[in-house]
């Protein structure tokens, strides 16, 4: 006799499939601003008691447990906002971008921001640009997305499951395996001619991010290395894309006069179109020409005339003079996406046969009109050799005030061969991160000078004019974020003597820093700075950097324990 449970099992599966099919077709995403306005449709096992027609959305029912709360607010999340207090190009969710910035955007690099797609119901932030408005505006929508899959998270009963596991870091042993599992990458040998065909497409009356810069005949060439370290001249310079590359060029020294890439005219003769397909052209102006000799000495030319490569035979050796070694473009643009100025700086030198193949360096930078770039000493951690950022706090609760010259914010006494303190008054040396320095000078005194006057003079030499009160913890610390600044602790050592006048001997500045962040890319962070007087014979200043980083300890998350229990009749009717 056939068991009675088999027909019942078939009915349950059929009803289950019908419920899922109707739910998949009837739960589209709904745009709303209410965070709790949409409920996920419940899956009903067995025959439905509702009389609704097929394809009609099912009414939301009561939940059987707590709904998953989003870890982050997608409306405030912006994954492409990489620059602090600056607008990132094509980042529509960047709060620092204005309507003027939107005018040079081509599209939103991240159009949709969502949370975990495994939830049955989640919020999604959708960004787009309205170019029909004047000026262009950003369009923002916050919608509810319903996951049509039945295998989605509806209730939260295991909180650690909502976090991500540590990603596998590729190394020399696992790189090939990861490349096979991923999509990988391909290099197209015909990419050199693809940009020429793109320029034939009609474009708008302004440059947008990533668009090749057009010239009178094709585009502005920016040599770079593609599939190998060799220079490829058919690479276009893209608008608002700052680049700095080095590549190797194989040349025949006997034919250096006929090689265009070695001549100054190859880089200075093109004229850039003000906007795409415009008849107005901006010439490239040579701002400086520096000559490098065979022994690496540099000499700047008074004029900026274009020099041609010249082959010179020196006995058994051949030399090629006026060869371009470095090229630096500086392009100025407006907020309307127009190029209004193009400057060029060149480094030319003499090349011998021992220097072949030749290494060249190319740079291009874009500067907006009527703006001044803000240099940083690191982003975020300090970079070795860059000056320490320091400033003052006028009163408690206010921001930090810095002087415009970042090489003059935290300085020490400057040393010369004469060692004369009075001759060095006002000349200071900036404190550079990671550089331990010591300087000093000699102060010649006469017996007629009062001690207090000498003490004031020595203090002014040691401290300089306006010694700062705070030092930035990171190289990109903002002046309004006072918590990112470390106060300088002043320590004065005095000696108890009968005379009331004491002459300061030295100023010692001690900067303590630590490695902060990931083990793969640690960032240098200043945690303490102190300065004090020590009594010595010579007047001097010193700077030391102390690494106070704690040894890193690798941690691993414990694997989850699986506690699976089967119902007592799971194998019915077989057992």
TrEMBL record:
<dbReference type="GO" id="GO:0036038">
    <property type="term" value="C:MKS complex"/>
</dbReference>
<dbReference type="GO" id="GO:0021523">
    <property type="term" value="P:somatic motor neuron differentiation"/>
</dbReference>
<dbReference type="GO" id="GO:0060271">
    <property type="term" value="P:cilium assembly"/>
</dbReference>
<dbReference type="InterPro" id="IPR040354">
    <property type="entry name" value="TCTN1-3"/>
</dbReference>
<dbReference type="InterPro" id="IPR057724">
    <property type="entry name" value="TCTN1-3_N"/>
</dbReference>
<dbReference type="Pfam" id="PF25752">
    <property type="entry name" value="DUF1619_N"/>
</dbReference>
<keyword id="KW-0325">Glycoprotein</keyword>
<keyword id="KW-0970">Cilium biogenesis/degradation</keyword>
<feature type="region of interest" description="Disordered">
    <location>
        <begin position="46"/>
        <end position="68"/>
    </location>
</feature>
<keyword id="KW-0732">Signal</keyword>
<dbReference type="GO" id="GO:0021956">
    <property type="term" value="P:central nervous system interneuron axonogenesis"/>
</dbReference>
<feature type="compositionally biased region" description="Pro residues">
    <location>
        <begin position="59"/>
        <end position="68"/>
    </location>
</feature>
<feature type="signal peptide">
    <location>
        <begin position="1"/>
        <end position="22"/>
    </location>
</feature>
<dbReference type="GO" id="GO:0016020">
    <property type="term" value="C:membrane"/>
</dbReference>
<dbReference type="GO" id="GO:0001841">
    <property type="term" value="P:neural tube formation"/>
</dbReference>
<dbReference type="GO" id="GO:0021904">
    <property type="term" value="P:dorsal/ventral neural tube patterning"/>
</dbReference>
<dbReference type="GO" id="GO:0001701">
    <property type="term" value="P:in utero embryonic development"/>
</dbReference>
<dbReference type="InterPro" id="IPR011677">
    <property type="entry name" value="TCTN1-3_dom"/>
</dbReference>
<protein>
    <submittedName>
        <fullName>Tectonic family member 1</fullName>
    </submittedName>
</protein>
<comment type="similarity">
    <text>Belongs to the tectonic family.</text>
</comment>
<dbReference type="Pfam" id="PF07773">
    <property type="entry name" value="TCTN_DUF1619"/>
</dbReference>
<dbReference type="GO" id="GO:0008589">
    <property type="term" value="P:regulation of smoothened signaling pathway"/>
</dbReference>
<comment type="subunit">
    <text>Part of the tectonic-like complex (also named B9 complex).</text>
</comment>
<dbReference type="GO" id="GO:0005615">
    <property type="term" value="C:extracellular space"/>
</dbReference>
<feature type="domain" description="Tectonic-1-3">
    <location>
        <begin position="205"/>
        <end position="368"/>
    </location>
</feature>
<dbReference type="GO" id="GO:0021537">
    <property type="term" value="P:telencephalon development"/>
</dbReference>
<dbReference type="GO" id="GO:1904491">
    <property type="term" value="P:protein localization to ciliary transition zone"/>
</dbReference>
<feature type="domain" description="Tectonic-1-3 N-terminal">
    <location>
        <begin position="70"/>
        <end position="175"/>
    </location>
</feature>
<feature type="domain" description="Tectonic-1-3">
    <location>
        <begin position="378"/>
        <end position="531"/>
    </location>
</feature>
């Amino acid at each position: 006799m056939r068991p009675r449970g088999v027909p019942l099992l078939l009915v349950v599966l059929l009803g289950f499939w019908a419920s899922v099919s109707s739910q998949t077709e009837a739960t589209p995403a709904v745009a709303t601003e209410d965070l709790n306005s949409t409920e996920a449709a419940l899956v009903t096992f067995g025959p439905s008691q509702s009389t609704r027609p097929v394809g009609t959305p099912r009414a939301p029912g009561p939940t059987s447990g707590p709904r998953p709360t989003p870890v982050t607010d997608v409306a405030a999340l912006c994954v492409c906002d990489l620059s602090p207090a600056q607008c990132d190009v094509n980042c529509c969710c960047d709060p620092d971008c204005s309507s003027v910035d939107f005018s040079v955007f081509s599209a939103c690099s991240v159009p949709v921001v969502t949370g975990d797609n495994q939830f049955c119901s989640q919020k999604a932030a959708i960004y787009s640009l309205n170019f029909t408005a004047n000026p262009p505006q950003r369009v923002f929508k916050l919608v509810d997305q319903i996951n049509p899959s039945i295998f989605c998270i509806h209730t939260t009963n295991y909180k650690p499951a909502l976090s991500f596991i540590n990603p596998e870091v590729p190394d020399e042993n696992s790189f090939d395996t990861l490349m096979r599992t991923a999509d990988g990458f391909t290099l197209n040998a015909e990419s050199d001619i693809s940009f020429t065909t793109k320029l034939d497409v009609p474009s708008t009356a302004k440059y947008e991010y990533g668009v090749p810069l057009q010239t009178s005949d094709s585009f502005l060439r920016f040599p770079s290395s593609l599939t190998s370290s060799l220079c490829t001249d058919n690479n276009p310079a893209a608008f608002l894309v700052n680049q700095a590359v080095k590549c190797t060029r194989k040349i025949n020294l006997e034919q250096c006069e006929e090689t265009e890439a070695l001549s100054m005219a190859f880089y200075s003769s093109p004229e850039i179109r003000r906007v795409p397909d415009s008849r107005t052209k901006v010439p490239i102006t040579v701002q400086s020409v520096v000559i490098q000799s065979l022994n690496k000495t540099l000499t700047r030319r008074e004029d900026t005339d274009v020099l041609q490569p010249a082959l010179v035979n020196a006995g058994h050796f051949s030399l090629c003079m006026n060869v371009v070694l470095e090229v630096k473009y500086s392009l100025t643009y407006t907020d309307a996406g127009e190029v209004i100025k193009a400057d060029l700086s060149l480094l030319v030198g003499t090349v011998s046969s021992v220097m072949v193949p030749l290494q060249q360096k190319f740079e291009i930078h874009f500067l907006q009109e009527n703006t001044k770039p803000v240099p940083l000493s690191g982003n975020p951690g300090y970079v070795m050799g860059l000056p320490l950022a320091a400033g003052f706090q006028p009163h408690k609760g206010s921001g930090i005030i810095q002087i415009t010259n970042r090489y003059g914010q935290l300085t020490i006494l400057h040393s010369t061969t004469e060692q004369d303190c009075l001759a060095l008054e006002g000349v200071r040396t900036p404190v550079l991160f990671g550089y331990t320095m010591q300087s000093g000078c000699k102060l010649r005194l006469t017996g007629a000078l009062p001690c207090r006057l000498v003490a004031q003079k020595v203090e002014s030499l040691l401290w300089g004019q306006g010694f700062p009160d705070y030092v930035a913890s990171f190289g990109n610390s903002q002046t309004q974020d006072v918590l990112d600044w470390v106060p300088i602790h002043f320590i004065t050592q005095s000696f108890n003597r009968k005379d009331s006048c004491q002459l300061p001997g030295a100023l010692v500045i001690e900067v303590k820093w630590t490695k902060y962040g990931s083990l793969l890319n640690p960032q240098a962070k200043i945690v303490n700075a102190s300065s004090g007087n020590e009594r010595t014979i010579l007047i001097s200043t010193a700077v030391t950097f102390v690494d106070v980083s704690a040894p890193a300890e690798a941690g691993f998350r414990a694997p989850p324990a699986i506690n699976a229990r089967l119902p007592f009749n799971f194998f019915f009717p077989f057992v």
